[in-house]
Specification:
Number of helices: 5
CATH class of the largest domain: Mainly Beta
Order of helices and strands: EEEEEHEEEHEEEEHEHH
CATH topology of the largest domain: Elongation Factor Tu (Ef-tu), domain 3
Radius of gyration: 20 Å
Number of domains: 2
Helix content: 10-25%
Shape: globular
Low-confidence stretches: none
Structural class: alpha+beta
CATH architecture of the largest domain: Beta Barrel
Strand content: 35-45%
Number of strands: 13
Strand order of the largest sheet: 10-9-13-7-8-12-11
């Protein structure tokens, strides 16, 4: 589990395609290394990844074919900058919101405009993300916890402050760029809880199935 507060911006130093369709990436970094061990989870631009090897100046992680298909890491190349966050501990301050690191869909930048010292940004979201978006709610964009202030259909807007731009890869975005999106975990649970319960086992159901003959 993560918080959406990026600890460091790293760089993909190597991408090795695997025979069965996955990839092994080498990420160059330094700040998050003290909190990583082999087998630990780390959020890489919105994707929960498992560290398979620690290096002196980075780490190696494996990406499954499913991850490559559902996220922008499927087209990751050497030199790409990525947001990094180690998994939270019980004593970690929850500065953002609960982020699982499971990409729900890929969005696209439709507006990127200077607004004072920050940026007014707008993204489109696929249905699996858009249904959970609300004004003043939460959404993770490339692993960054953000608060939409305007939601309309499949589009949402966020006002990015200078600190967020400085400490993440969002500063380098432009109209047309694609990003990993994860809907608010609590919103997903709330929606699930509000759905009608499925039919349980009843005497009528057992009879129609032949168990009472």
């Amino acid at each position: 589990m993560f918080t959406g507060i990026v600890r460091e911006v790293g760089t993909i130093d190597e991408v090795q395609r695997q025979p069965r369709g996955g990839s092994r990436i080498t990420v160059g970094c330094s700040g998050v290394l003290p909190d990583l061990t082999e087998g630990a989870s780390v959020n890489v631009s919105g994707v929960c990844s498992t560290v398979v090897q620690l290096l002196r100046h980075g780490f190696v992680a494996d990406l499954s074919p499913e991850t490559l298909a559902r996220s922008t890491l499927g087209k990751a190349r050497r030199g790409r900058r990525v947001n990094l966050e180690p998994s939270v501990r019980l004593d970690t301050p929850l500065g953002g919101h609960l982020v699982a690191g499971h990409v729900d869909g890929v969005g696209e930048v439709t507006l990127w405009r200077r607004d004072g010292t920050g940026i007014l940004a707008e993204w489109t979201a696929p249905p699996e993300v858009a249904r959970f978006l609300v004004d003043k709610g939460s959404v993770a964009v490339d692993g960054v916890s953000l608060t939409p202030y305007e939601v309309s259909g499949d589009r949402f807007r966020v006002s990015l402050i200078p600190e967020t731009l400085r400490s993440t890869t969002l500063e380098g975005l432009a109209v047309g760029d694609r990003v990993n999106l994860e809907a608010d975990l609590l919103a997903k649970y709330a929606r699930k809880a509000m759905q009608p319960a499925t039919q349980g086992v009843t005497w009528d159901l057992l009879g129609r199935a032949g168990f009472l003959d």
